[in-house]
Each structure stands twice: as structure tokens, then as C-alpha cells.
Hints:
The chain contains 10 helices and 8 strands. It is α/β, with parallel strands linked by helices. Helix 2 packs antiparallel against helix 3. The chain starts with 15 loop residues before the first helix and ends in a 37-residue tail after the last strand.
Amino acid sequence: MAALGWLTPRRRSATARSVLAGEASAEAARKSSQDAQDAHDTPDAQDAADREPEFPVLGDDKAAAFFDLDNTVMQGAALFHFGRGLYKRKFFETRDLAKFAWQQAWFRLAGVEDPEHMQDARDSALSIVKGHRVAELESIGEEIYDEYMADRIWPGTRALAQAHLDAGQKVWLVTAAPVEIAQVIARRLGLTGALGTVAESVDGVYTGKLVGEPLHGPAKAEAVRALAAAEGLDLTRCAAYSDSHNDIPMLSLVGHPYAINPDAKLRKHARDKDWRLRDYRTGRKAAKVGIPAAAGVGAVAGGTAAAIALHRRRR
């Protein structure tokens, strides 16, 4: 896959592998995403004088929204749910399931991403899928979504994403989860597409290696920057949503950063930076909320016809 030439030199904390991972994910999404759905008609603005300016802005085609997945859009970690589904299909043994279960329990209790735990989980997943065909895992991913993920989507976050879609903007998942899993979730939610970790495959078979590194931390910011350049987006008009302090590099790129179900470090950072907060874990709202209330309550029924098909890098 050719290097993306439209990135300009800049100061950043990302490593060369982070840049490679970000560019690989952005190019995979860019090549295969379809146009976003047509903007829905929206009701007339209410006449409340003290209401904040409407956001997202209707018809702003230079704006888009970027959503982290784990604990932001979905309760728990997609990779762990995927592991459960693979165990059910006898991809690995009981001792490996116990390891996945422990990692998921830790994640749910801590509510944050620990790099060591996440790396361990990714290494386990890569060893499990090595030698399997990409098409097989894509098909299984559809089944696993229905079994373990569909009922774990945060309704409030789903509604926030729909608000951007209804304004005619593209909405992207940005996750360290495998791009194939991100593809399924984005399609089921009616989103534009997804940026995810790209696993290497040769002739449609996984090699057990990654392209670059997992799409995590600085690599996420690189992917968003690359995709924005390709799509002609103005990042100062874009929004990003995450629960984790690990995503501060991504959140700092955009003009509208949101802390959703934030961990302690992100909550403090968001308050220091005057970022908007929303917490769906207890039903309470943080003080600074910029999305209209109607967009943050309840699930939005159904999805849209927009679909994406993300391709992994092949050699």
C-alpha cells in the first residue's frame, strides 16, 4: 500500500509505527467507505432564548464526528466480546477463554484501558486468527455482534452519532479493535465507516502480524488527521468523543471535543480545558453539555442504508 503523501510535517508525540498504523487505517477506510446518508429534515429550532448555538451544524460538509468505541459507544471492549464469540466456535481452548474473561472483568471494573492488558489481548487475538481467512472472520463478526454487542450499545452515545448524521455529516468509529469488527459495528449503527487496527493478510489469510501498531493513543490521532486531509475536512469544525485519557491526542485535534463516560484522568483534563462532558453510566449529566438534550436521551430506532466495507492491507 503506497504511503499517503498528503500528510504535512508537524510536531507530534506519535512514533513512526503510530503514523504507519494511522495512515493504514485511514487509507483502508477511505478506499471502501460509501457516501454518508442524505441529511434528514430536522425540526425547527425551539424558541428558547438561552439555548446554546445548535450543534452539530446542519449542512456543514467540512465537519465530521469521530467516536471511540470501547466504553464510549459500547459497554466493555469489542475485542473481548469477539473473543467470547470465537471461543463459542471452538477457535481456542477453555484456558484462553478464562484469560479473556479476566481481561474483560478488569476492564469493566477499572473502566479504563490499560496498555499492558490491551496489548496482551491483541497478541492473543492475533495468534488465534493466524491462518484463518479474512472472509471467515468477517462473517463470524456479524454473528458475534448480534450475540454479544448489540445490546451493549450506549443509547445516549448512539443518539449523539445520529444527530451528526441527521445534520448531513459523516460519522466514523475510531478504535483499536480490528478493522473487521469496527466494520460490522459501524454498518449496524448506520455510520459512515470505521478506522481500526489493520491486521496483515496475504491472499486473504491472516499472517498473525499487524500493519504498524494497534490504533491506540497517538495512532488514533494520526488516523483522524489522515482521513480529514483526504476528505477535505476542517478539524476545527469536527467533533470527537471518547471515554479514555489515552484518546486526548485525538480529542485535542478537533474543535469540539467531548468526554463521554470519562475515566478520572480524562474528566480532570476535560474540566481543565473546559471540554464538554456527558456520562451515561449513572444517568446523570455533567454540567457542560453542548448537544441539544433531545439528541442525548434514548436510543434512535433503526439505522440507515449507509454501509461500508473496509479492506485490510495485503502484501
